Amino acid sequence: MSTALSAGAPPVEGPLAIVCGAGSLPFAVADAAKQRGRGVVLFALRGSADAERVAGYPHHWVAVSQIGTVCRLARRAGCRDLVFIGSIVRPAFRDLWPDAHTLPLLPRFIRLFRGGDSRLLSGIASVFEEQGFRVLGAHDVAPQILMPEGPLGRYQPNAADQDDIAQGLAFLRATGPFDVGQAVVVARRRVLAVEAAEGTDNMLARLAELRGGGRIRAVGGVLVKAPTPGQDRRMDLPTIGPQTIEGAARAGLVGVAVIAGSTIVAEAERIAALADDARCFVLGVRHEAPER
């Protein structure tokens, strides 16, 4: 078995392998690598990645369970560095059909599935490292996708909003060890919604429905997102995109606060424009949290 490369090693020559899910971020990372003169090979996940956009890059289509196939094709292309980026719905274990190269790892995956997303993703990274690949964070390749400190648009939080942000961060620190989710909505220090398996967008849709039905009468509120303490930052940093801002506006929120330097931002200029139209702030805040 090959020896894993050090995460702190100098960049390795050869194309970058990008395992890509849904959304625009995989292509932003690919373009950033190409601008630095590095080739890319996309390993597009069936049922998630945007087929029309994938077609513009060297690529292979793979299933979530085809780790062996990804390793074999990446080696053939000369890839040693690998990035995971893009959203994906966690599959049920019974729906996984491993290829012949992945089948010996099945007992290990059974154990990994008995836990939260952080455990599963970190375990998958370890498998690739054991196969001789260096797993990088998307932000290592494209640092410009990270949220800066301060506002993205014209609007700023008031004192009450700042209080809600602090309450949300404290809540996420407390729940982080349980790997529940990376987001919470707080209004006047009251927790209105917590992200779990449904993801941020569906949490916001649920909140909008509850407010529309009169189940929640509190006005305003802030969406707060932060990394889970101890999570593998290479695999699963919190992400916001235009859809996040649209969902927050439909849910009647006044702002979104995320951790500067530890949150991936998809289409920052569009986010700023949507936030300004909705009179909603989008803020990158400082936050000290344990990291891996």
Could you explain the architecture of this structure?
- Mean pLDDT is 87; it is low at 1-10.
- Helix content is 34%, strand content 18%.
- Helix 8 (200-212) runs parallel beside helix 9 (242-250).
- It has 10 helices and 13 strands.
- The longest helix is centred in the middle third of the chain and has 17 residues, at 159-175.
- The protein has 2 domains: 16-142, 3-Layer(aba) Sandwich (Rossmann fold), CATH 3.40.50.20; 146-285, Cytidine Deaminase, domain 2.
- 40% of the residues are buried.
Secondary-structure map with pairings?
Layout: E1 16-20, H1 25-35, E2 40-45, H2 51-54, E3 59-62, H3 67-76, E4 81-85, H4 106-113, H5 117-130, E5 134-136, H6 138-141, E6 150-151, H7 159-175, E7 183-187, E8 190-194, H8 200-212, E9 222-225, E10 239-240, H9 242-250, E11 255-259, E12 264-265, H10 268-277, E13 281-285
Parallel strand pairs: 1-2, 1-4, 2-3, 4-5, 9-11, 10-12, 11-13
Antiparallel strand pairs: 6-13, 7-8, 7-9
Helix pairs in contact: 8-9, 9-10
Notable characteristics:
13 strands, six-stranded mixed sheet, 34% helix, 10 helices, 292 residues, Rossmann fold, Cytidine Deaminase, domain 2
Helix content: 25-40%
- What percent strand? 15-25%
Name the poorly predicted regions: 1-10
Task: Give the end-to-end Cα distance, rounded to a whole number of Å.
Answer: 25 Å
Molecular shape: globular
Give, in order, the helices and strands.
EHEHEHEHHEHEHEEHEEHEEHE
CATH architecture of the largest domain: 3-Layer(aba) Sandwich
The CATH topology of the largest domain is Cytidine Deaminase, domain 2
The gyration radius over C-alpha positions equals: 19 Å
Mean pLDDT: 87
User: In the residues, how many domains can be counted?
Assistant: 2
Order of strands across the main sheet? 6-13-11-9-7-8
β-strand number:
13
Structure classification: alpha/beta
Largest sheet at a glance?
A: 6 strands, mixed
For CATH, the homologous superfamily of the largest domain is named as LpxI C-terminal catalytic domain
Q: Regarding CATH, which class of the largest domain? A: Alpha Beta
